[in-house]
Design a protein that fits this description.
With 153 residues, this protein is an alpha/beta fold. Helix content is 41%, strand content 24%.
């Protein structure tokens, strides 16, 4: 299963660390995490955290980069390409910037493509559902993932 995981640049890493870790440990063992990355700049703090957690949990991951010299349009194309290759999209937002920026673009494209998408706002008080195709209370998603392959727990 290919799971695109994206997060807002303004996310509080201390707040998102536990929800992100919990989500990663629920993935089937043969999952691959799809991660956005800029081409000519360092990755953001969220993406670096995601890479560290994937390495610690021995989860395969792949970076999606914009085309060389493509500017802002290339970033949007990268997001579309990543969504096209994902089976599921999970997004984390700072409560002050829900469904905005590139992370909002990824969620929008996942909904347009009718992919399962789970979007949450995260702060130090917890994680809350903010949108997507299936509600988070739908534990069928977890049951389906577990039926595909053993999880990492």
């Amino acid at each position: 299963m290919k799971v695109a995981i994206v997060g807002s640049r303004t996310l509080d890493l201390a707040a998102v660390s536990v929800p992100l870790l919990n989500e990663l440990t629920r993935l089937p063992q043969e999952s691959m995490v799809l991660i956005r990355s800029p081409r000519n700049e360092p990755r953001g703090d969220f993406e670096e955290l995601l890479v560290r957690l994937c390495k610690a949990l021995d989860i395969d991951y792949d970076f999606y980069l914009p085309a060389t010299g493509s500017g802002r349009a290339g970033v949007f194309e990268r997001d579309i390409h990543m969504v096209d290759h994902a089976d599921v999209v999970i997004a984390y937002f700072d409560p002050k910037h829900i469904m905005s920026g590139g992370t909002g673009h990824v969620v929008e494209k996942a909904i347009d493509a009718e992919k399962p998408v789970y979007a949450y706002e995260v702060d130090m008080t917890g994680q809350r559902w903010v949108g997507g195709i299936e509600p988070p209370e739908d534990d069928a998603r977890i049951a389906e993932w577990h039926s595909l392959s053993p999880t990492r727990r």
